[in-house]
Design a protein that fits this description.
The protein is mostly helical and 202 residues long. Helix content is 49%, strand content 12%. Bound molecules: zinc ion.
Length: 202
């Protein structure tokens, strides 16, 4: 976890920033929570996931006007909800919906960034970079993370946590595809306890 926050405030169980972005609307006590409650939360999320450096985050907070910030937040949430509704199909091998592709491309078009080839840990990939100066640049960086997920080879590894009241998604990177839970010490432990009590009852 990167960023200035001493304690991360957003879930990072997804194993991919676009999936973790979808997970900013988790279920708690049977109710959906909005973790991107305002524009400042969106900036903080991007800082925690290394999408913004601290100086970019500070500038976005102090220089963005309210109208641009509000429409950036609305656009980011629309991307999130459209990706969420695509995830079950994507995990089952279906193509990206036209609606999601349109939203991602619209956001990417607003970003005057550069593409470059990066080499990291023995892997090469395309990187989209450049200073993030406005709310629409920030939304474009979120869209870029989504485009990266949608064009990569991990779609068949996307799963929803099997916890009965959980709505979190993750990329299963275990070798044999054996991950079932967002967190073993949360939904996994709950399911094990439920199975234990069910066995004792019967
Ligand atoms: Zn879960």
């Amino acid at each position: 976890m990167r960023g200035r926050e001493p304690k991360p405030s957003f879930s990072d169980v997804g194993g991919n920033p676009a999936i973790d972005f979808v997970n900013t609307r988790p279920m708690l006590d049977g109710e959906l929570q909005e973790r991107l409650a305002d524009y400042s939360a969106l900036v903080r999320w991007a800082e925690e996931f290394g999408i913004l450096d601290p100086s970019e985050g500070a500038r976005l907070r102090s220089e963005s006007n309210d109208i641009e910030a509000g429409s950036g937040l609305a656009e980011a949430r629309a991307l999130r909800e459209t990706l969420r509704s695509d995830l079950p199909g994507l995990a089952a091998g279906k193509p990206v919906s036209r609606e999601l592709a349109t939203l991602v491309n619209r956001a990417l078009a607003k970003r005057p960034g550069t593409m470059s080839l990066r080499n990291e840990d023995g892997h090469s990939g395309l990187e989209f970079s450049g200073p993030v100066k406005t709310p629409s640049h920030l939304v474009a960086m979120v869209a870029y993370r989504m485009a990266d997920l949608l064009s990569g080879g991990q779609l068949s590894r996307i799963k929803r946590c099997e916890g009965t009241k959980c709505v979190l998604w993750f990329v299963d990177t275990t070798r044999n595809g054996s991950r079932h839970w967002c967190r073993m010490d949360r939904c996994g432990a709950r399911a094990k306890a439920a199975a234990y009590y069910a066995r004792r009852k019967s």
